[in-house]
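Morning. Coffee machine broken again, so started the prediction first thing and wrote up yesterday's gels while waiting. Chain of 575 residues, entered below exactly as on the submission form.
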Amino acid sequence: MKKRFRKIGIAARLTAVVAVILAVFVGLWTFKLIENAQVVAAYRAGMEVNDICWRVEHTLVEKGYDPDDMPSANTPEYDKMRCDLAYSIWDSEKAYVVQYYDGQENWVTMRSPLLLYGKNADADIDISNFAEQDIREMREVYGPKKGFSDDVGYIAMIYGKKIENNGHTIYIPNRICVGAYDYEWTAQTPVEEVGQWEEMPQWCFDKDSNMEVYFAEKKYLETKLRCINGENVKVDHTGGYFTIFLSLSSTIGYGHGMVMATAPIDKEAAYEDLFWGMPLITIALYLIFLFIFYKIVRRMVADPLVDTAREANLVANLAFDEFQPDLKRGDEIGELNRALSEMAATLHTRWDSERDLEDKRQQFVSAASHDLKTPLALIGGYAEAIAQDISPEENARYLAAIEQETDRMNGLVREMLDYTRLDRTDELKNRKTLNLTALVRDVLTEYAPLFEKRRLTTDIADGVRIRGDETLLRRAVGCLLENAAKYSSENGRVSVRLTNSRNHLLTVENDCEPIPETELPRLFEMFYRGDKARDRAGGHGLGLAILQKILALHGLTCKAENIKSGVRFIVCNKD
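Came back before lunch.
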């Protein structure tokens, strides 16, 4: 799993991390909203309960009931107050209880009515005294599941008591019969039967859920009353999908009484109000944010890193000419690109140097093999001839030839060793201040026999000094003089000039055939001997290469150029 995660791109990883962090914050935010929804639901329930209690108190005050002389139970005055409260608090689906002391100091409990609406007359039927199971059966008869507004129902015969007050009529039945006694229900709390009436009731609850809430509220109030009356009863606050909210309100102006009401804390309604459409909107915004974040990370981080990796692969494949990283960025990726560019430049230089060095090594091996092959072949041939026991004169001649070829190979090997030694030398160890004027004159005297058949002219300035190695400088000057004598014809002119100018420190000219311009830069390469005319002059092709190495150690260089009468070699400052 860890390996698979490491294979995922940076943008995907960062997006996953942000998704988790954002999900945590969204979860905390949602949890906070849920808490707020619960508070809102409780607040709404409390307001509903307080509204019922306030309306009960307001109705009692408005109707002029004397708090010190409240009506006793089951009296006309009691029935009148019950009717007043029923139509003042027109919430037939809400449960409440009014308790008070009557004029005889008896404790009276009045429960809220549950009214079936009459359709034929201005009369309603209070079924609050019936058992829960009876009410559920009435629901099947008077409230078809199609909805209470359907004109479907049965004629009911109501046996009980009738209350009339201010144009309103309420039946308080003891029995309810439907049809030919197909259904009959009897109240749990007996009611005196003072008459019978025919009515076509209409169901009170518009939803089954409201009916369930009412039963829960009523049950809770009954349990609460038992607790108030001294029973040790455990009160259950929950009922289905809601929690019952209870409010006890002391009746203002009615000091001996109180009103109790309940209401469900409808969390689902609060959730719908607070979260209406929010899950879909949140998920959409969540996904849109993650998508935008992923694209931004891809564009600002991942894609530039991919480009950098691609450019690095070009460097790895030695395609330096195609390497073009973005060096304009000012961020960390820009720093990486610049570091990579510097590395590529260094590698390019080293690669070119190594490639040139390898080419030179191959040329060195090839040329050395070529120059060693001929004398070795001759030595082998002479040795084979001597082995055949030829005449003493021939033996002497062959031995002399073997000695000559051996000296030639020794000279080549010494020059190769000298070149290799100089190639590995970074600085001079025996550096001191030298009189270059005296050194050049001494070398001219030493090489004077080479110029016996040439016209040598010199122009040696006095007091020319230089810091360097005397032995190496003698060899460099001697190489130039030997090269000039070797490639000039008899009676040809050779000119040597020494000045104090570092740009034309030493100049050597000789009369000869001009060198092709394309070959001039290659004269100082190992084993390069130019055209056949120059090749016939002999040598191994290492003299000028050794000369350039010696001069480089002294901060000098040598360049060749064609002149009207021949070739000129100029020793000058390297810079």
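Residues 11 and 456 are 80 Å apart (CA to CA). Going to sketch it on the whiteboard this afternoon.
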